[in-house]
Amino acid sequence: MMKYLSVRIYALFLCFILSIFKGHTQNQAIIDSLQSVIDASITDSVKAEALMDLAWQQMYADHPEALSLAHEGIRALDNVSSLRIRGYSYTVIGVVHWVGSSYDSAIYYLTKSSDAYQAKGDFRGLAAVYNNLSMVYQNQSDFARSLEYATLALQTAESLRDEKMIGNSLFTVGNVHYLLEDNDKALSYFQRALQTKIRASDKHNLQKIYLNLGSTYHNLKDLDSAAFYYSKCLDVSEHLGDYKALAIASTNLGNLEMDKGVPNEAILFYNKSQEIYSSKLKNDYDYAVLLHSMAKAQLQLKQYNSAEEYAKKSLALAEKLNDFKRLHSAHDVLSQIYQQTGDFKNAFYNVKHAQVFRDSIFNLDKAALLADIETKYETEKKEAQIILQEAELSEQKIKNERNLILIFGLSVILVLIASLYMLNQSRQKKANQLAQQQKELEIKEAYIHAALESQEIERKRFAQDLHDGFGQLISALRLNISNLQDSTHEVESQVAMVEKSESILVEMHSEIRNIAFNLMPVTLIQYGLKDALVELAQRINLSGRISVIIDTQEMSGRLSEIQEISLYRVIQEWVNNVIKYAKANKIIIQLVLHENELNLLIEDDGEGFDPDILKNNAGNGWRNIQSRLNRIKADFDLDSCPNRKGTSLIIDLPIVKQDFFENEPTFV
């Protein structure tokens, strides 16, 4: 089985290298698209988010460029009030700093991200930030804090019942136990993480779980299972383009060959990993691990000079990172090199330092042991105090009986006071609940009133269109028909009457189409939201007063009926208001479909306004927009200011697979 896996691993690695070129082309298309959004954006919120998306894309391929983009995005946040965008931006720049091994900066920005998500009440974002903080503290060998944040992430994910996040958090907790060399506990968490991911059909970070499962089985000397999971890691990494996972898996495969006693084969894998670090990836922590492995391989081949060179490079990176685990490993291999070359002074020096750093790694276990001893001590001390108190109570029994009446009286008074206080609190709570219910009822009544009033206005307009438009056209047509019945007219005159009647019918048909479009566009029913918006833009652009641009990001498929109609009416209402009040020259409507969310952005270059004025407005238009968005459970952000040009309405619509149709949905 080991021979078969080795052949498959080589083949997978070759396929991955070939797929890099294809993946580069696809990534370049994404990068170009994001750059065009940045260049064309007229609002800071959209620009900041696009800059962070681009920094994330460039994080491994061009880390200095990614860092520059992330800082530019942070500067754009000065005029952005959206907590969602601020939380996301701080997360991205924190992770970019983490990838560049700037751990203090990573912790600073990730902490700001957690503050933003906490203020917004976005627990999904908080769980992700906690996971990232745990990973940063792992790289600093601060396993106490790492385990604390990993546990917080798991508790938050479980409270949300989010299977994908639970899988990520289980993986992070398992990683802490893996670094503490508790392989059995780590294996349990990794297996639970894998089962959760598969159950949720989530491939995100799947390659990392396979990688750590392989590493754990490797530590447990189960080499067949280790090779199997390393192979699975390469397979998934091929599709995801994950250079980091590929580099680590290649290092671990080299370590596997070392355990089999073939260092020459191990060096082949190490060289492939080093190629990735040289050209595609900058990660001091993982590179230090590779250099340590290369030093051990050279030591086994008795190439002592090369072994010492790699070990010292690994030590230099470990000192830069101040990572106790890497420092222990570097000093340990140096001690072995000096011992074999007869330099016992340096061997002793490095053995001593290796032991110091190993003791530092397990401070968490020692702290737990001390806490346990302290708990036992405090328990014994309390038991002794209880015995002493019982003796004193026995001696003072007569004195205490004399005070019982006073104590009982005071207790009764305290109980009465407490009862009155609790009764008052209960009444206050009920009053608050009734006030809240009354407020909710008033809001619902206001929404219903707005909807009914909107329907009445629509009916009056429809009746007016029928009366004014069709009434005159039908009268003219009836007059023409009566003239045709008069046989005294010449043939040429009758032909002219027929042509005029035909012209009236054409005009009636056009009037019917306009009325039908206002009621419910046929294009929306037959072809969906994308085509209906294009038709709406074409009708508005014919006026020549304003330009409406539709960008659907190659969106295919359709949403459910209620989602498409609600979004269309919201867009129609908002665009009409922009045309009436904003004095805008251009409106951009952008739809971007993600895996679990549809993002709708409506931008204009007109005059800004105070959003609070709109939110406190009693007009039916804004109520209708809120009512329709509440109906489809969509969130929205409004970005505008009276002192600057441009307004953005951002709508986030959560979608599930049942909401989205590759073909047309059924409308009734």
Q: Describe the strand arrangement of the main beta sheet, using strand numbers.
A: 1-2-3-5-4
Cα Rg: 36 Å
Low-confidence stretches: 1-5, 10-26, 364-378, 662-668
SSE string: HHHHHHHHHHHHHHHHHHHHHHEHEEHHEE
Secondary structure category: mainly alpha
Question: How many E-type strands?
Answer: 5
Share of β-strand residues: 5-15%
Proportion of residues in helical segments: over 70%
Largest β-sheet summary? 5 strands, mixed
What characteristic shape results from the CA principal axes?
flat
Look at the structure and give the mean pLDDT.
80
Gap from first CA to last CA: 59 Å
- Count of helical segments? 25
Any overview of this molecule?
The model is unreliable at 1-5, 10-26, 364-378 and 662-668 (pLDDT under 50). The chain has a 5-stranded mixed sheet, covered by helices on one side. The relative contact order is 0.05. Helix 2 (44-58) packs antiparallel against helix 3 (63-75) and helix 10 (206-219) packs parallel to helix 12 (243-259). The chain is mainly alpha-helical and 668 residues long. It is 77% helix and 6% strand. The chain contains 25 helices and 5 strands. The two termini are 59 Å apart. The chain crosses the membrane at residues 404-423. It comes from Belliella kenyensis. This is histidine kinase. Residues 370-444 form a coiled coil. Residues 472-657 form the Histidine kinase domain.
Outline the fold blueprint.
Blueprint: H1 2-40, H2 44-58, H3 63-75, H4 83-99, H5 103-120, H6 123-139, H7 143-160, H8 163-179, H9 183-199, H10 206-219, H11 223-240, H12 243-259, H13 263-279, H14 284-300, H15 304-321, H16 324-340, H17 344-361, H18 363-395, H19 397-485, H20 491-519, H21 522-527, H22 529-541, E1 547-551, H23 561-582, E2 586-593, E3 597-607, H24 611-615, H25 620-631, E4 635-639, E5 645-654
Parallel strand pairs: 1-2
Antiparallel strand pairs: 2-3, 3-5, 4-5
Helix pairs in contact: 1-2, 1-11, 2-3, 2-4, 3-4, 4-5, 4-6, 5-6, 6-7, 6-8, 7-8, 8-9, 9-10, 10-11, 10-12, 11-12, 12-13, 12-14, 13-14, 14-15, 14-16, 15-16, 16-17, 19-20, 19-25, 22-23, 23-25
